[in-house]
Amino acid sequence: MIRVNLLPQRRDARATPTTQTSQRWLLFILVAVVLEVIGLFLFHQGKVEELEIQTNKNEVLKEEIKDIKNLVANHEEVKKQLAVLRAREDAIAQLQAGRSGPTAVLLEVAQLLTPGKTPTADADKLAQLRRENPLAVYNPNWDSRRLWLTTYDERERTVRIEGLARDATDVSELAQRLKLSVYFYDVTMLPGKKEAETPTKVELVNFALQLKVRY
């Protein structure tokens, strides 16, 4: 006779090794998925920041390109302005050259022949001359009206001056002042002669000087 047990059987409460292994794999997969999601998020954030940086650079480049385009658009106007500035610079340079050139030399001659005026000279040099030889400097009491010029001829910075004076001391005073001036050097007195008496019975000396100019 066959007996069949129809009562429910107790199962072992302990999990089998296969079940434990499956759970571990499931947990590992879950952790891997979470780490991958975090990595993708961080990667995405990094790319977003790079995109913002590149966008800012592009905006800067756009502004620079805009400025360059504006400059190119005003190119003709800028050229005109530069031409005006160059013309002004040339005019100023010519004025400066005139002030330090023949004009300055003629002004110096006029100053030498003006009562109370003195030559444009080096102050230290004058002081040394006064100490060593007082006769080598100009006479501050000289009356320049005792002498006047009739000719001033300059060729290649060599000047010939001719004129009339009351006597030889006036010519010597003019020559001394020319030697002390910073504008002249190599002053040489050329042979002169006495003029005939004037209607006022005053004898005059006809003189000539040769010298070189600096400018």
Number of strands: 4
**Content-based structural category:** alpha+beta
CATH-derived topology of one domain: Gyrase A, domain 2
The portion of residues forming beta strands comes to 15-25%
| Number of alpha- plus pi-helical segments | 5
User: Helix and strand succession?
Assistant: HHHHEEHEE
Major sheet size, sense and barrel closure: 4 strands, antiparallel
Give the CA-based shape: rod-shaped
> What is the class of one domain in the CATH system?
Alpha Beta
Radius of gyration over C-alpha positions, nearest whole angstrom: 53 Å
Low-confidence stretches: none
Topology:
Layout: H1 17-73, H2 75-99, H3 102-112, H4 123-132, E1 147-155, E2 158-165, H5 168-180, E3 184-194, E4 205-213
Describe the protein.
This protein is an alpha+beta fold and 215 residues long. The chain has a domain at 119-213: Gyrase A, domain 2 (2-Layer Sandwich), CATH 3.30.1360. Helices cover 54% and strands 17% of the residues. It has 5 helices and 4 strands. The chain has a 4-stranded antiparallel beta sheet with strand order 1-2-4-3, covered by helices on one side. Strand 1 (147-155) and strand 2 form a beta hairpin.
From the structure above, extract its key features.
215 residues, alpha+beta, Gyrase A, domain 2, 54% helix
Summarize the structure.
This protein has helices at residues 17-73, 75-99, 102-112, 123-132, 168-180, and strands at residues 147-155, 158-165, 184-194, 205-213. The protein is of the alpha+beta class and 215 residues long.
